[in-house]
Design goal:
Layout: E1 3-8, H1 12-23, E2 28-34, H2 37-47, E3 51-55, H3 63-73, E4 78-83, H4 88-97, E5 101-104, H5 108-120, E6 125-126, H6 128-145, H7 149-152, H8 155-165, H9 170-177, H10 181-195, H11 200-209
Parallel strand pairs: 1-2, 1-3, 3-4, 4-5, 5-6
Helix pairs in contact: 2-3, 3-4, 8-11, 9-10
Length: 217
């Protein structure tokens, strides 16, 4: 059974080119075309295509907002963004709106068919030049919001926490780290205060959850 596709772009010549490209594939059928974002939403609701290929810079209703509405009104429909721009704002906007793919127009002739097949397999498709932008943004978000033990605790605090979680006594930890018992007691209190925990059991659970130690022997 053919994959049904709706093409949305405000330039007729672009729509014709995309339609000609997709129609060459025996498993793909273009069931409609839209010249503006509002029409794209209306046709998606009426035709219920499996895939919508939509330009971001659409008149009346931009591609980001149109995508948000299509995803909400026609659950299961996959949206592939088509754009001249690799700007991070557009990429983030489309993916946040629910798009399953982001394709740069100059890559469309080589990548569109593969993009359709990939999103139909419930995977995300990104043009090569877009992948780096998405990964960079993801890594930055992790750096900004990371509250893991490796971000929250100092190396020595992590070391003490692991030994505590593994059942070592305060004296054993002090001997292992070549510090006083008092120092380890101070570290233990600082750990509890910093993490908002009140017992050794809570510290052990935290250490296991954060991957500092394992329940496996």
């Amino acid at each position: 059974m053919a994959i049904t596709i709706l093409i949305a772009d405000d330039h007729q010549i672009v729509r014709e080119g995309l339609i000609a490209l997709l129609c060459q594939h025996p498993q793909m059928q273009v069931v409609g075309e839209a010249a503006n974002g509002r029409q794209a939403v209306q046709l998606a609701a009426a035709l219920r295509p499996q895939v919508v290929v939509i330009d971001i810079g659409m008149p009346e209703l931009n591609g980001i907002e149109a995508t948000r509405q299509i995803v909400a009104e026609v659950p299961g429909t996959k949206v592939i963004a088509l754009s001249m721009h690799s700007d991070k704002r557009f990429v983030k906007g489309m993916l946040k709106a629910g798009a399953s793919g982001y394709l740069l127009k100059y890559c469309a002739s080589e990548e569109l068919v593969n993009a359709v097949l990939m999103v139909m397999a419930n995977r995300v498709y990104l043009s090569h030049d877009i992948t780096g932008i998405v990964v960079e943004d993801y890594v930055q978000k992790l750096a900004d919001s990371d509250a893991s033990a490796f971000q929250t605790l100092t190396p020595r605090e992590r070391e003490v926490l692991q030994l505590l979680a593994e059942g070592h006594s305060t004296r054993q930890i002090a001997d292992t780290l070549h510090v006083s018992v008092k120092t380890i007691e101070v570290h233990r209190k600082q750990l509890m205060d910093k993490l908002g925990l009140t017992s050794l059991a809570d510290l052990v659970k935290y250490a296991i959850r954060e991957g500092l130690t394992s329940i496996e022997k």
